[in-house]
Each structure stands twice: as C-alpha cells, then as structure tokens.
C-alpha cells in the first residue's frame, strides 16, 4: 500500500470543508507568489535592500503555500489540480488501494479511480 491513511467515503465527505479551506489558502498564496507588481518591485529593490515590502508579499505567499500543502500531505490528501480544486483521498475498495476523487463544486465524493489512473478514468461509487 502506498498510503498509511485510508478514508471511507463518509470520512472523506466530512473532510471536504477542511479541504476547501486549504484550497482557498493555496490559491491566495499562489496569487501572492505570482503578483507581477510585487515581483517587479522586488526585482527593482532587491539589489539594495532585499526587497522590503514586495519581498514580504512573495515570501509570505511562499510560506502560506508551503503550510497549506504540508497540512494536506499530513492528512495524505493528494492535490491534483489547484485551479480545478481536484483532490484524491486514499481509500480501500475491494481489498485494494484506490483514490476517492473529488472536484471542488461537487456536493460530495461520488467517484473513485485506480491509483495510477486520473480524473478521466474515474468511476461512480
């Protein structure tokens, strides 16, 4: 088995609110990391003072991104696509390890797929 932790459908559904909070934190952090105005100011200021406030925007984005990703990893929830909010929960089905698949906007977990398959191969529960 690849994962130590496995979710039942009920456990994964119960975690969806928590997962959505992390997805929002990840998106906000990603926006700070890719904020072109902050990055341009950082490039201009970095030779003299390390970037000041723009550097803080980018470094805060990085730290927030790292924190939210670590929280998901600690729960063994696999982020597949941040933009779509696509995540997988390790589970056991018919005595083999699979992923319960959820995409943000879906009301609950309704699909699963094999470990080496992706979203396109997901099947209804």
Give the helices and strands, then pairings.
Blueprint: H1 9-33, H2 36-49, H3 52-74, E1 78-81, E2 86-93, E3 96-103, E4 111-114, E5 123-124
Antiparallel strand pairs: 1-2, 2-3, 3-4, 4-5
Helix pairs in contact: 1-3, 2-3
Can you describe what's shown?
With 125 residues, this protein is α+β, with helices and mostly antiparallel strands. 50% of the residues lie in helices and 21% in strands. It contains three helices and five strands, in the order H-H-H-E-E-E-E-E. It has helices at 9-33, 36-49, 52-74, and strands at 78-81, 86-93, 96-103, 111-114, 123-124. It has a five-stranded antiparallel beta sheet. Strand 3 (96-103) and strand 4 form a beta hairpin. The two termini are 21 Å apart. The model has no long low-confidence stretch (mean pLDDT 86).
The number of domains is 1
What coarse outline follows from CA principal-axis ratios? elongated
- By DSSP, the count of extended strands is 5
Task: Tell me the Rg in angstroms.
Answer: 18 Å
Q: Treating each run of at least 4 consecutive H or I residues as one helix, how many helices? A: 3
Mean pLDDT: 86
Taking the alpha carbons of the first and last residues, their distance comes to 21 Å
Strand order, biggest sheet?
1-2-3-4-5
Strand residue content: 15-25%
Structure class: alpha+beta
In helices, the fraction of residues equals 40-55%
Reported for the largest beta sheet, the result is: 5 strands, antiparallel
Spans of 5+ residues with little confidence (pLDDT < 50)? none
Tags for this model:
125 residues, alpha+beta, five-stranded antiparallel beta sheet, elongated
């Amino acid at each position: 088995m690849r994962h130590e932790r496995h979710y039942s459908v009920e456990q994964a559904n119960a975690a969806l609110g928590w997962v959505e909070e992390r997805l929002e934190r990840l998106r906000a952090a990603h926006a700070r990391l890719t904020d072109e105005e902050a990055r341009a100011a950082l490039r201009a200021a970095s030779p003299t003072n390390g970037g000041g406030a723009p550097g803080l925007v980018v470094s805060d984005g990085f730290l927030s991104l790292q924190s939210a990703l670590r929280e998901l990893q600690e729960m063994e929830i696999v982020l597949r696509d941040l933009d779509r909010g696509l995540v997988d929960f390790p589970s056991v089905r018919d005595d083999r390890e699979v992923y319960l698949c959820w995409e943000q906007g879906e009301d609950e977990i309704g699909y699963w797929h094999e470990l080496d398959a992706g979203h396109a191969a997901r099947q209804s529960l």
